[in-house]
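Retry 2 of 3 after timeout on previous attempt. Resubmitting structure tokens to design endpoint.
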């Protein structure tokens, strides 16, 4: 049987130092074990990790990813290798939140190509196989972002 959290009334499984995921934050924040008064101030009901809106977005992205896996297999869009793939956004969520759950904005990419696409210079991105289709899509939807992408890494 799994150990239970030290906090009274919490039945969640232990993560670290005898505390569950919910209460470990308070443990690290205080850098000491909980006092009795602190135990009483902690809510006994679990805290939701995400808001309802964010949970719905995550669920929609997961359903798009599962649809892509069913139709294309568990293959990277770029290298076509059958490896673990992530749901990669063509237009980053930080700059284009309105495209976050659009099916055309999500592709399957292995971690290597996902990382290069998100963080690499434009010269690195040009080395990715099958990138021309994605670059044409970016340029047609938002030419300014394409320009910014081309400037990435150029000082």
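Retry 2 succeeded. Sequence:
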């Amino acid at each position: 049987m799994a150990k239970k959290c030290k906090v009274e009334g919490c039945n969640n499984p232990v993560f670290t130092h005898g505390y569950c995921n919910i209460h470990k934050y308070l443990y690290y924040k205080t850098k000491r074990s909980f006092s009795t008064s602190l135990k009483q101030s902690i809510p006994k009901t679990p805290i939701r990790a995400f808001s309802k809106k964010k949970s719905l977005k995550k669920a929609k992205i997961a359903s798009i990813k599962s649809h892509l896996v069913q139709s294309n297999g568990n293959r990277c869009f770029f290298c076509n290798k059958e490896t673990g793939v992530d749901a990669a956004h063509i237009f980053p969520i930080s700059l284009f939140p309105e495209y976050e759950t659009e099916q055309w904005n999500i592709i399957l990419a292995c971690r290597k190509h996902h990382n290069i696409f998100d963080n690499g210079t434009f010269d690195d991105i040009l080395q990715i196989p099958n990138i021309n289709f994605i670059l044409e899509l970016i340029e047609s939807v938002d030419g300014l972002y394409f320009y910014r992408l081309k400037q990435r890494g150029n000082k």
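Attempt log closed. The chain has two domains: 1-47, 52-151.
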